[in-house]
Amino acid sequence: MARLLQATPKFHASEWDIANKMQCASTESQKSRSERMIVESRRLLDEIEKTTQKTQSDANKKIEQRREEIKFWKQELDNKLEQIVHETEVLLTFKTRLEKSLESCKEPLIIAQKCLLNRQRRAGIDLVHDEVEQELVKEAEVLQGVIALLGRTLEQTNEQIRLNRSAKYSLEMDLKDKFTALMIDDYCASLTNNTPDIRYADNAVKIEGNFVSPEDWIDFSNTNVEKADKQRNNSLALRALIDGILLQTANDMRKQCEIVNVAFRNRVKEVKDAKHKLETLLATVMDETASQEKNIAALKKAITDKEGPVKVAQTRLEARSHRPNVELCYDTVQYKLISEVQEITKNIQRQDALAQAETELKGLNRRQLALEEEIQVKENTLYIDEVLCMQMRESVYINNF
């Protein structure tokens, strides 16, 4: 208890003086450090401001450069898109030309086949594998070859149109993305420190896994451009090929069609000449038949005219054979009568020319029938070639599509 009530120790005056000096020194030191810190902070703030402004200025420049890059590639893509769209439209017109040309081949082929079928109805010797038939077969083969070639070319054209549209789709999708990116970068370029809607964004600096490198970005658009160029060049080459095919096939078909027509005209002329010769022969045969008929009539009349004399002579001989006794004499009368009968009988027997004439008449009749049949064959051939086939072929016209 006594210790608790003990008086607090007192400091020496020198200690008090030292303590005051120390407080002053400590305060001055703190003040100096604070002043230095203020100067350093101001310098740091100034440096940060300048750095921030420079960084933001650099970012603005980068954004502007990026916008220019996007605009450049967007313009490139726009140009390629316009080119591929135009090329596809032109190729579609070539497709139409191919379709029309292919359709136009059907009628000539049908006509050629009908001509071959009709000519199977030729009769007799006229059912010949002549030049007309050879050229008709060749024409059918040419037309079938043209149809096959145009069909393959049309398939190739459809595939090229599909590839063009695929390139167009890739360009459109790339352009769509470029347009969106440009809109975003335009918005970013418009932002300033005083823009009202600027804000903090969580994880703004986080790079997601779907980010691509600038090189990949350029390669992607460059690939689309190269793809469009490649398909456009292929399309141009295909159009040149189609032009050549349409021209060549039209020339081939037109040339073969004319060859067939010339063969038909020549064949018709040959058949007409043959028919005319047959008709001339028929007229000759008919004249000869008439002459032979007159000859047969004259021979028959001559035979008939000899019946009276031979009957008289034979009757006389028969009557004189009844002379009595010695009167039955082989006198000059008897000799003459027998000679007369023999002579007339011999002359009648010489009339075997009648049988031969009748045989010749039958031959002439058979020849007449054969000529008439052959003329009918020629008329049938002329009807098939000149009326059925040649008139049908007048509707064949080879167009240049």
Automatic annotation (TrEMBL):
Q: Which domain of life is it from?
A: Eukaryota
Query: Mind listing the GO biological process terms from this record?
Result: cilium assembly; cilium movement involved in cell motility
Tell me the keywords, alphabetical order. Cell projection, Cilium, Coiled coil, Cytoplasm, Cytoskeleton, Flagellum
Q: Chief localization class?
A: cytoplasm
Subcellular location per UniProt equals: Cytoplasm, Cytoskeleton, Cilium axoneme; Cytoplasm, Cytoskeleton, Flagellum axoneme
List where this protein forms a coiled coil.
56-83, 347-381
GO CC, alphabetical: axoneme; microtubule cytoskeleton; nucleus
Cytoplasm listed as a keyword: yes
- Its family? Belongs to the tektin family.
Q: How does it assemble?
A: Microtubule inner protein component of sperm flagellar doublet microtubules.
Under the heading PANTHER family, the entry gives: TEKTIN, TEKTIN-1
Q: What does this protein do?
A: Microtubule inner protein (MIP) part of the dynein-decorated doublet microtubules (DMTs) in cilia and flagellar axoneme. Forms filamentous polymers in the walls of ciliary and flagellar microtubules.
Q: What is this protein called?
A: Tektin
Organism name? Pelecanoides urinatrix
Give the taxonomic lineage as stored in the record. Eukaryota, Metazoa, Chordata, Craniata, Vertebrata
Q: Which gene encodes it?
A: Tekt1
